[in-house]
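Entry 12.
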Amino acid sequence: MSAQQYSTIGPIGVVMAQTLESLGIEPGPLFASAGIKLDTLTDPNTRMPSGAFRDVLLQIEQCPEAAGFGLKIARFIHPTTFYSLGVAAYCSDTLGDYVARMVRYYAVVTTNDRIDMEVADDLCCLRWVHYNPLRFPALREDGIAAVFFTILRYALHEGFSLERVDLARSMPSGGADLYQNFFGCPVYFDAAATALTFSEALLAQPLVSADPALAAAYEQLTEQYVAQLEKADFPARVRNELIRLLPTGVSGKEQVARELCVSTRTLYNRLEEAGTTYREVLDDTRKILSEQYLSKGLPVNEIAYLTGFSDTANFSRAFKKWTGSAPVNYREALSGKRQQ
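Predicted 3D structure (tokens):
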């Protein structure tokens, strides 16, 4: 398993390719231009780096034939798409056990975000919280909701329904009808986070596919996979801590190591094993956050503070080193692209 800071399991790419083919779009060139080899994606140990994954999604977004793509991929989802996690969840005793396994081991699917589960007022809400500061096309939010709605229906043999869906994207030009027909419930756009809400009572529903022995065996495989993943994705854990700490003015390796419950030496060693250094992760995190803040129109002095710089001059010098442009020029270039 190769080291990637944020990544998605390869079989998701297979599902995307199958969806493209069903729409008459040749997937090979789209994936190849993003640096992804289609023939490697059937291996669950192959993971798509977030940058490459985003590039594929951006290209799909530009294809007129792929309208509603995020919803259409649900046709090709199966429990085995998620490797041992999918089987362990499918063999759970109840839907509640199914959901708990998906939440606990969601890193198998992707490390770009996590699932938070909240039960209140007789409702269960699954909410996706993003780790990765990289911005993805809206169709990924559609895909997240569509895929998990589909696998929950699969678990209960379609005896599953939603109360509401919230999507962290703007309403598409075609309106909400396509979405409300797909999910069978009210759909709300421009949400702070994508979320699925359903009756808490469904969590107690038994699964006809329940097999405690298989569930235990495949959960053990899943735990081993996650352990490998955590080792390979250690830079992502460092990055997550930096995202949290930088606005407080903290960027030192000692504090990050303390937050991760490792020694500074272990921090260095594990980053080296992953093929990177603390300085590289710090610079890359600052660069991504800076570009995101500039695209949102934040003042340069505020961005300097949020990315942990002591003053605007130091931030501007660093940003020009990373991108070749001063922050103000970078923002102007972004504005020009939007106006075209």
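Annotation: DSSP finds 16 helices and seven strands in the chain. Strands lie at 7-9, 47-49, 113-120, 123-130, 164-166, 187-188, 195-199.
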